[in-house]
Specification:
- The protein is an alpha/beta fold and 414 residues long.
- The protein is built from 17 helices and 12 strands.
- The chain has helices spanning 23-33, 44-50, 89-97, 115-118, 127-135, 155-167, 187-205, 222-231, 241-244, 246-254, 282-293, 311-322, 344-351, 361-364, 370-385, 390-394, 400-409; strands at residues 9-17, 56-63, 73-81, 106-112, 142-146, 172-174, 210-214, 236-240, 262-265, 297-301, 332-336, 356-359.
- The strands form 2 sheets. Strands 11-10-9-8-7-6-5-12 form an 8-stranded parallel sheet, sandwiched between helices. It has a 4-stranded antiparallel sheet with strand order 2-3-1-4.
- The structure holds (1Z)-2-hydroxy-3-oxohex-1-EN-1-yl dihydrogen phosphate (1AE).
């Protein structure tokens, strides 16, 4: 097969499972079907006009599997001319995986966008460096704590919970993603009290802190809500990207008035990535596309905690977020869910210092309370950075918080 010239084209890679299919025929039907519709039936004149719109088969890699039913598959790469779609993520996704996502065992495993397409996306406004600069922390993984049991709280309750988390020395506090607009603790009201609690805690800890407040409500009002929160002092946002769509994240992140980092929550991602046969692979869904759309931090289930994702997929997400060869800022990987201090050495080994250790239950469930929970994590991070086993560090004077955490949750061997 002669290699097509791919400039001005976005290339999608699909994994197609089929025990009997002629994969070359399947590839051609995708390339033609998702672009010009039908090729052989076109008159010659029309063919000449349509040539520039025609999708191209770039490669087909067949795998026979082990002979068991369902094990035969092919990885098929198709190039789509940029001129077929506008420069936005919805148009790209509908082109490469709109109708096709419903047509048999087809999974979108990667998407390489052209330089031209990428040029419409500034990517993360802050990225890893920008978030570190805001916090003044450059030499260790960041620590994020998650508000828990927030539904039904009054402002006073939220403020106290925030203060306790902040006292523990965390770098970021994020809302729970299920905290929506409500009369008692609406976005502007809770930002005001929580930022005041952050100021008080900072007098004790000497640390800066970002509060990622959950941006919710109808799409048409999100930018106004974000501006309102920022006018009350919000210095970061949390956003349920997949419930709204990547384009909404892109618009928020590209808005010059929304000049705070945005953390992307992965809610709904499980409806799309876990199947080996269908959906969109996690590294594309939560890695490449989140960064392209402008997420400064991206949360996803880690391989170790309560909601797990296979480690290879986690590391591939990390790769997508940190890849320096892309002409845009890098995004922080935030492996999450069920994280406790005993997992910190694993997180550091697998994700390195350019990551965020993120915990809800692992902070609030500490026997000494949320402040002790944060301290235990900070002590675990310092020990792991110095190559000191957590059990050894926990036995040292001043490390009572870590000791209590190790007793409660144990330490996972590296
Ligand atoms: C993958 C998202 C994790 C998340 O948002 C969350 O709230 C985790 O809570 P914990 O740490 O499992 O209690």
């Amino acid at each position: 097969m002669t290699k097509p010239n791919l400039s001005g084209m976005c290339v999608a890679t699909y994994r197609v499972h089929d025990d009997k299919a002629d994969f070359a025929k399947k590839a051609l039907s995708i390339a033609v079907g998702l672009t010009v519709g039908s090729w052989t039936d076109l008159p010659e004149l029309r063919k000449a006009e349509m040539e520039k719109h025609l999708g191209r088969v770039v490669s087909i890699e067949e795998h026979q599997g082990d002979g068991a039913p369902g094990s035969r598959y092919a990885d098929i790469r198709i190039a789509y001319p940029d001129i077929n779609f506008s420069r936005d993520i919805p148009a790209l996704l509908v082109t490469v995986f709109g109708k096709l996502s419903m047509d048999g065992k087809v999974r979108l495993i990667d998407l390489d966008v052209s330089e031209g397409f990428q040029s419409a996306f500034p990517g993360p406004k802050f990225g890893i460096q920008g978030v570190r600069d805001l916090l003044g922390v450059h030499d260790r993984p960041l620590l994020m704590s998650i508000f828990k049991s927030v539904i039904g709280h009054d402002l006073k309750g939220l403020e106290e919970q925030f203060y306790q988390q902040a006292l523990g020395g965390v770098d970021l506090i994020k809302d729970d993603e299920i905290l929506f607009e409500n009369d008692e603790t609406g976005i502007n009201r809770r930002v005001a009290v929580c930022m005041e609690a952050a100021r008080r805690a900072s007098e004790q800890t000497g640390q800066k802190l970002l509060y990622a407040v959950n941006l919710t409500g109808p799409t048409s009002k999100l930018a106004d809500q974000a501006r309102l929160a920022i006018s009350e002092g919000a210095n970061a946002l949390l956003f349920n990207v997949l419930a709204y769509g990547y384009d909404v994240l892109h618009e928020l992140s590209a808005d010059p008035d929304i000049n705070v980092p945005i953390a992307a929550h992965p809610a709904m991602a499980g409806a799309l990535y876990p199947s080996p046969h269908y959906g969109i692979a996690a590294p594309l869904l939560l890695g490449k596309l989140m960064r392209l759309a402008g997420a400064d931090l991206v949360l996803f289930p880690s391989p170790y905690g309560s909601v797990v994702m296979p480690k290879e997929e986690n590391l591939a997400i990390r790769e997508m977020l940190l890849d320096e060869s892309r002409a845009m800022r890098t995004s922080f990987p935030v492996p999450s869910a069920g994280i406790h201090p005993g997992l910190v050495p694993l997180i550091l080994r697998d994700f390195g210092i350019n990551s965020v250790v993120n915990a809800g239950g692992g902070v609030h469930g500490h026997p000494g309370g949320a402040a002790a929970g944060g301290q235990a994590f900070r002590q675990a991070i310092t020990a792991a950075m110095n190559g000191v086993p957590l059990q050894t560090a926990a036995a040292e004077p001043g490390h009572e918080a870590l000791k209590a955490a190790v007793d409660a949750w144990g330490v996972r061997e590296v």
